[in-house]
Design a protein that fits this description.
Elements lengths: L6 H15 L2 H22 L12 H7 L1 H42 L5 H32 L1 H4 L5 H29 L14 H44 L6 E6 L11 E4 L10 E12 L2 E6 L9 E4 L4 E5 L7
Antiparallel strand pairs: 1-3, 1-6, 2-3, 3-4, 4-5
C-alpha cells in the first residue's frame, strides 16, 4: 500500500518534477529569446522591415535582450527586496502586537490598547484587500474592454500592472489576516473547528497560492513584453534621429535603382572595358546586415523614405567610408 501524502507535499512533488523536465537554463534562454525578438520586431518594423526577413539567429536575439530587460529587472529586484523587508516588518509588528495583547489580557483583561492596535492592523489589512480586489476588477474591466480601449497608448502596460498589483495586494492582505487568526485562535473559536477539514483546506490554500502566482507571473510577463516593445521602438526612433552614427555605404549597381530620396546622390560611372557596374549611390547608411543581404537607409530621415534591401551576391559592389576622424 502507498501512503497518502499531504496535498502540499504532492504539489511540491509535481513542481519538482516540472523543474526537472524544464531546465532553468532552457527557460531562461527561451525568455531572453522572446523578449529580444519582441524588441527587435518593434525596432525594425519602424523602418518597414519584418524582422523575420533579416535572418537573425537565436543568439542574436538573446544578445539583444539585456537592453529591453534592464528596467524590468531593476524594478523587479528592487520591488522584491522591498517586499521582503515589508514582510519582515509586518510579521514582527504583528508578533509584537499579539504578544502585548496577550500580556494585557492576562493582567488587565481584554480590550486593552494592544487589542485595539490589533484591530487597527486587521482593519488596514481588510481595506488593503478590498483595494486590491478593486484593482483586479479595474484590470479585468480593461481586459474585456480591449475593443474600445485598446487604442489607449498605455493600455498594454496599465492593464497587466493593475491585475498583478491587485492580485498581490489582495493575496498578501488575506495572508496577514490569516496570520492574525492563527496568532489569536480564540478570536476564531479554535476549539470549535471541525476535524477532518485540514487536508481539504490545505489543498484549497495551495491551489489558490498557485493560481495567484500564475496570474502574477503572466501579467508581469505581459508588462515586460510591452516594455520590450517600447524599448525597440525607442531604439528605432533614436536611430532615425542619428543616422549619422550608422556606417556610411557607397553602393555600385549594374542598373539604375530609381531612388526618389533627395539625400541619396546618383552618379553615372564612366564606361570602361570590363566595367559591369554603371551607377554609384552615395548618402546611404547600413541599418543592419542579415543573411546575405544588407538593409540600407538614407542619411536623413523622411516619412516618405523606404529601406533598401541589397543582396550580397555579386550583383552590387559595396564600399564602407571612413568616419573622417583623424587617428
Amino acid at each position: 500500500m502507498t501512503e497518502d501524502k499531504p496535498p502540499g507535499s504532492q504539489l511540491e512533488h509535481w513542481i519538482n518534477v516540472g523543474a526537472t523536465i524544464i531546465a532553468p537554463t532552457t527557460l531562461l534562454g527561451a525568455l531572453l529569446f522572446y523578449f529580444g525578438y519582441v524588441s527587435s520586431r518593434a525596432q525594425y518594423a519602424y523602418f518597414g522591415v519584418d524582422v523575420d526577413t533579416i535572418g537573425l539567429s537565436t543568439q542574436d536575439y538573446i544578445m539583444r535582450s539585456p537592453q529591453p530587460l534592464l528596467v524590468p529587472l531593476l524594478v523587479l529586484t528592487l520591488g522584491g527586496a522591498g517586499l521582503l523587508l515589508t514582510q519582515a516588518a509586518v510579521r514582527g509588528h504583528i508578533a509584537a502586537a499579539v504578544a502585548a495583547a496577550a500580556d494585557e489580557a492576562d493582567t488587565a483583561g481584554p480590550g486593552g490598547r494592544s487589542a485595539r492596535h490589533l484591530e487597527r492592523i486587521g482593519r488596514v489589512a481588510r481595506w488593503s484587500r478590498a483595494f486590491g480586489l478593486a484593482m483586479i476588477v479595474a484590470g479585468v474591466f480593461l481586459l474585456f474592454g480591449y475593443p474600445y480601449l485598446g487604442d489607449w497608448a498605455f493600455y498594454a502596460l496599465v492593464t497587466p500592472l493593475l491585475i498583478a498589483a491587485g492580485t498581490a495586494l489582495a493575496a498578501y492582505a488575506s495572508r496577514v489576516l490569516q496570520r492574525m487568526r492563527r496568532a489569536l485562535p480564540e478570536a476564531e473559536g479554535a476549539g470549535n473547528r471541525v476535524p477532518g477539514r485540514a487536508d481539504g483546506s490545505t489543498m484549497a490554500r495551495w491551489t489558490a497560492a498557485v493560481l495567484v502566482y500564475v496570474v502574477i507571473a503572466a501579467t508581469i510577463f505581459w508588462a515586460t513584453a510591452t516594455i520590450a516593445q517600447w524599448s525597440g521602438l525607442g531604439l528605432a526612433e533614436h536611430e532615425a534621429l542619428s543616422f549619422g552614427d550608422l556606417p556610411s555605404v557607397i553602393l555600385d549597381t549594374k542598373e539604375r535603382l530609381f531612388l526618389r530620396d533627395p539625400y541619396i546622390r546618383e552618379t553615372v560611372l564612366p564606361a570602361s572595358p570590363g566595367q559591369t557596374f554603371h551607377f554609384r549611390y552615395r548618402g546611404l547608411r547600413l541599418l543592419i546586415e542579415g543573411q546575405d543581404r544588407m538593409f540600407l537607409v538614407p542619411d536623413e530621415w523622411s516619412a516618405s523614405d523606404s529601406t533598401l534591401v541589397v543582396p550580397l551576391d555579386g550583383s552590387v559592389r559595396v564600399q564602407f567610408q571612413f568616419q573622417n576622424q583623424a587617428p
